[in-house]
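User: Okay, second chain of the day. Same drill as before: sequence in, structure tokens out.
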Amino acid sequence: MNDPFYEFDSLNNATRFDFLSIGKKEIHKAVIYSQTADPQIFFLSLANVLQDDSLDFVTISNNGDLKVVMATVVQTLMTFLDVYPTAMIAFTGNTPSRSRLYNILIGQELGQASASFKIFGIKGDHIESFAPDRCYDSFLVMLKNVNIE
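Assistant: Same drill. Structure tokens below.
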């Protein structure tokens, strides 16, 4: 959480954040927080912004700056939760290997992240406090002081 991150612009009442990934090439990216049917839960998505301003949620960029991009996503999460402090953020990888990568990254940052956040892992219909030695399909993050009803 103390890693370098890209500067970003907050748009749409802090539900979209745009930044420029600068690795092998420059890629315009967006982090989007979409409200679900449950008004307290938002789904986090990371996308490439194409030249026509459409969003590409599928392409894996491999731009050589993964740690900086992930640190930027965490910074947008903290900014989003400043505006929506009772929100719960859900996310998953768009492939099983991407979900495993998120699992590894969360495990590496868990000590530091647990000071501010509650982090849960979801496997099928089962939700539990995140454990670094487990593999999850998706994840749920909220501020530490938020209680699930």
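The first helix runs from residue 66 to 83.

User: Thanks, on to the next one.
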